[in-house]
Amino acid sequence: MDNWCYSAGGSSKHGLKEVGSLRVIRTYALQELKTATADFKFQIGVGATSFVYLAEIGDGRFGAVKRVMEERGGSRKMFLDEVSVLLRISHPNLVGLLGFCLDKGEQLLLLEYIPNKSLFDKMHTYHGQFSGILTWSNRLNIALDIARALEYLHSQADPPIIHRDVKSSNILLVDNNHAKLADFGLCKLGYGTEHGSQTPTSVKGSFGYIDTIYLSTGLVSPKSDVYSFGVLLLELITGLKSTQGSLTLVEWTKECRKSNGIEALARMLDPKLNGDANLEQLLSLISVANLALLENLEGRPDMSQIVDVILSSIKPQLQLELPV
């Protein structure tokens, strides 16, 4: 069994750099993770190519074991690509890697355990709604956390990383105020130009969130994640899923969010909030979403600009009454 240790400020044989901390990534034998998960007994999540199980990893600590299944389309290359990404990243708003296993044909990731399920579960399932809705302040804080996660991937990771699958089911809630971005199986490392790849790639992602330019050209860029983040903002604002029948949420809300009338824009707010939101913040987030969803890549902001706007809108300000 190997223990890979990465010291502060140093680099490993895998090129991972850490600042201000010591990180240890372990490789596990299959039997260790079978024992930790009680032979994959407690399923806590499911993805397109994987199942996720609760694992007890000692000293009262828990982890999440992602079991990538070849029969569900989880290829060895995809698994190794995800490991490669996870070894390179470390940020408070990204789900971290604790270890992995390639043993006896299994492909297993041991990940940080986030106990409160996904943003999708919280907003769109009976169980999530039964335990209480997210307040307007909760939604702003979650948006800021994910914006910071994407800013890190685009601007601080080395090489830069495009996530390619930003959506509410890949956002895990630490609590109602804080979230982490998960699932790096579709990530693309690096990009050829300032605005993205010059070579078309097969389109990856989830319907409703995929950048329309990426969808039509196969050219992916950080601005593709910006588009998906714009959809996420609409989801947080309206409380609606990313698709509405045969329409995307972007199409469903287009007429309303392009309106110059405050009353029309205020009607976009999730009715479950009963108008309990800050109008200036609402208008600011709709404006950010509109820019993020522009067909013109050049016109879309980068994630650092979006972080700045959300941060400035969160600063204490006069609560304005929403029009009825």
Automatic annotation (TrEMBL):
The GO terms describing molecular function are:
ATP binding; protein serine/threonine kinase activity
Coiled coil feature spans: none
Q: Which UniProt keywords apply?
A: ATP-binding, Cell membrane, Kinase, Membrane, Nucleotide-binding, Serine/threonine-protein kinase, Transferase, Transmembrane, Transmembrane helix
Gene Ontology cellular-component terms for this entry are:
plasma membrane
Using the UniProt record, name the top-level EC class of this enzyme in a single word: transferase
Membrane disposition: Single-pass membrane protein
Name recorded for this polypeptide: non-specific serine/threonine protein kinase
The answer to whether UniProt assigns keyword Kinase to this entry is yes
Q: Does the keyword Kinase apply?
A: yes
